[in-house]
Amino acid sequence: MKLLRCVPFALLLGNVMAQDLVQVSPAIAKVEYEDASIRVIRSHYEPGTSSAMHSHPPRVVIALQPGTLRLSRPDGSSVIPPADPQQKPLAFGPETHAVANIGSTPVENIEIEFKQQAQLGTLQVAPNDGSAADPEALLHEPHHRWVMQTPYFRIVDARIPPGETTQWHRHEFPSVGVRVHGSRISAQKSGGEWSSPEDLSSGAVTIEKLPLPYVHRVKNSGGDEYHVILVELLERPGAQQAGP
User: Fold this and answer.
1) Do 38 and 105 share a structural domain?
2) Global model pTM greater than 0.85
3) In whole angstroms, what is the distance from residue 39 CA to residue 78 CA?
4) Assuming Cys at both sites, which of 60, 100, 166, 219 could form a disulfide with 50, CB separation 3.0 to 4.6 Å?
């Protein structure tokens, strides 16, 4: 007669919490970019689909297609966050959950995970004051709006209405750009010529490897608002540079 070996519940729970979203639900989540410090995931839930229980490090979530998701925790509880039609970026500390699309429309998110961080970090209540005195500072440019900041990332919301051109402004941190709404765009670097207008599609994630800092301005010659969320990476030792 075989003896059954008992496995402690805490060990089973620990194994559940160690699961990775891309590994347990490859039909839902794809890696857009990864280096030593961050991982960028695109998660797409058709109505009625779900992901298995998985864990995240601290992360930023940007909704490309908002909808109705149910988040279920290992303790059996669940929550249904309200859909946000304004698609505001959200920041979360480490968490474990399963996700199900219980609505009638697809839901797609870009999730930027901070692999080397144990906690989210303290959120600032306002941007640093120095940008107002610097005419080329990113936050001095009126189309760029500060959203939130911790010691290791800053989120900036950039919106350029049709027919408008930004002022000259400087990008000085590596960053990930999430294009919420595309349009017909051209850009001019300081000392250079305007680029040819290009139709940039909605939903793209841009990882650019330009030398930093650089100064440029951007023109929207299309018929739609150009909307990009920039997640600036303030502390990324040993990582490749990425930009909007």
Assistant:
1) yes
2) yes
3) 26
4) 100
